[in-house]
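<given_protein>
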Amino acid sequence: MQNYYFTGQYAFSNTQELNDTTMNSQIDTRHFGHSQYDAFFNGQHYNGSALRLVARRSSKYYSFHLQYNNFAPTFQAQEGYFTRTDERSLHLSQDLSYYPINTFLVNGDISANTGIRYDYSNRLMERWVDLDWYNKFKGQTSLEVNYLGVNDEQFHGTFFTGVRRINFNVNSNGLNALSLYAHYGRGRYIYRSDNPSVGHGYSYSLSATVKPTPRFNVDLSYDFSRLTSLSGDSLYYSGDISRIKASYNFTSRLFVRTIFQYDTFSHQIQIYPLVYYKLNPFTIFYAGMTNYMHKFQEPYGFKPTNREFFIKFQYLIRS
C-alpha cells in the first residue's frame, strides 16, 4: 500500500447576512443554486458545507487519481480556495509511463482523464473524456498531443454537446540562452456570449525566452485565435495579442522591467514600465506606470486613453 494515498477535506460555513439593503449598488437577485437564499444583504441566515475526497496511486509505470467533490450552493468561503460551489462531481485520471533504453526518447506518458459534474438540483452540468500523449526527448524538448473526445457542457441554460478538439504543444529548453514554445489547437469551441452557440475555430501560440546575458531577459509571445459558426457564415471573433516583456537586473537589489502589449481584440496598446529596488528583505521600493492607447478610426489612429503613475514603499517597523 506504499504507493496509495488517501486524503480528504471538509469545511463548514455559517453565514449571517447584514440586513442593510443600502449596501447593494443594485438589487442582486442571484440565488445560490436553486435554494431560497440570494446574494442580497437582506438578513438571511444559512449554512453550507464542502467535501473533497481523493484517492491516488503513484508509481513509476502506472498511476491514477480519483477525486470526489460535494460543494453546497450555500457554502461561503470568501477567504478560501473554493472557486465554485453548487457542485457534485467525480474525476478520474489514469497514466501509463514508459522509459525507452538507448534512444533519443527519454520517457513518455499516455493518460486518460474523465469526469462528470452535476449541480445540487441533479442537473447535468459537464462531462468530458480527455486523451493525452506526452513525450520528452533529449535536449530538454517535449511534444504533447491532446484530444478532447467528449466535451459536453451546460452554459447559459443550453447544454452543448460534441465540443471536441485537438491540441499540439511543443516545448524546448535545450539552450541556456533560448527557450521556445509552440501551441496549435483546432476543433469546436463554445462561443461564450449572451447568445451562445458552438463554433469551429483554431488558435496558435508562439513564445520565446531570450537571455542575451545573465542579467538581461526578454520574453516574446504571440497568440492568435479565430472562431466562426459551424456553417462558416458568421465570424464570432478573430484577433491576436502580441507581447514583449524585458527586464534587466543591474544588481541583486535593483532591476527594471517593461511590458509592451498590443491587443487587436480591443485595439489597444498597453505599456507597463516598472523600477524595483530592495534595500533589504523588509525595505522595498516600486515605481511604475500604466499607459493605455486605443486605436480609433482614421485619421485619428492611436490616442492615449488612460495613464496612471504609482509609487510603493514598504518598510517593516521593528521594536
In short: The chain has a mean pLDDT of 91.
